Amino acid sequence: MTSIKNKTVWLTGASSGIGFALAHQLADKGARLILTSRREKQLEELRQSLPNSEQHQVLALDLSQPEQAKETASGALADKHVDILINNAGVSQRSLAMETDLAVYRTLMEVDYFSVVALNQVVLPSMVQRGDGHIVTVSSVAGKVGTKLRSGYSGAKFAVIGYMDCLRAEMTEHNVCCTTVLPGFVHTQIAHNALTGDGSLRGSEDQDNAGGISPQQCAADIIRAIETNKAEVISGKGMSKVAPLLQRFLPGLLRKMLANR
Ligand SMILES: NC(=O)c1ccc[n+]([C@@H]2O[C@H](COP(=O)([O-])OP(=O)(O)OC[C@H]3O[C@@H](n4cnc5c(N)ncnc54)[C@H](OP(=O)(O)O)[C@@H]3O)[C@@H](O)[C@H]2O)c1
User: Fold this and answer.
1) Residue ranges per structural domain of the chain
2) Class assignment of domain 8-259?
3) What is the C-alpha end-to-end distance of the chain, expressed in Å?
């Protein structure tokens, strides 16, 4: 069992939802946090609300610009050693494939895929040098099962699972752990913040997410996966939890169900 206590954890998407819950639970376990998202004010308020607030740091980054985020983070974290990076920030989509601007597909890939690649490159060299570290990436059940209105989101989340599988194979000899998290529906702002076909925000809840597990439960699942060094973990309930199993063992049935949804 790996202990979180006194570990330096770089957490993206800390200002909301699963990341916000993770920040509280990790701080309660004695981690020193580097809190990342775009909204610096929210991150600063979060930092001040955490136990041992002076141990934590805010690092605001826009992950839709991965090259710039990588450069800024490399400078800001040059004298730190990060024990655990949790790539949790993400943006979803609610729009039909034939009605979605190419620019929206690119934004989804920048935030949900390329930023993961970029931030990992910030921390991997020192993890490999030390022979110790943990990369955690929050993908989605949508990274195993494609459903309506999420073609760009699913594309990026499928991609990041493949990337993490390759990274795990490369990192095993360096003792750097790689965990991929697949949440099902979680009750957060994800649907509200989802992009529509023209790139504007959806701006409203969605029943699936509203009926999902709490972000606190998802955060607890993620922390358990880190402590027990799981390669891949699904966090959810009901259909969103069993869909990857159906995909594997009853793919024809699942296809029919998803087309009729
Ligand atoms: N909720 C679900 O049902 C569900 C299911 C499967 C997977 N997930 C995944 O779980 C992760 C967390 O999502 P959530 O449900 O907690 O959603 P959320 O409440 O919308 O939070 C998303 C987080 O990502 C950050 N973010 C978004 N765009 C960013 C950008 N361009 N640069 C930097 N940070 C950015 C947001 O911070 P700022 O706005 O401050 O930048 C926020 O902290 C995501 O990767 C999501 O895909 C969620």
Assistant:
1) 8-259
2) alpha beta
3) 41
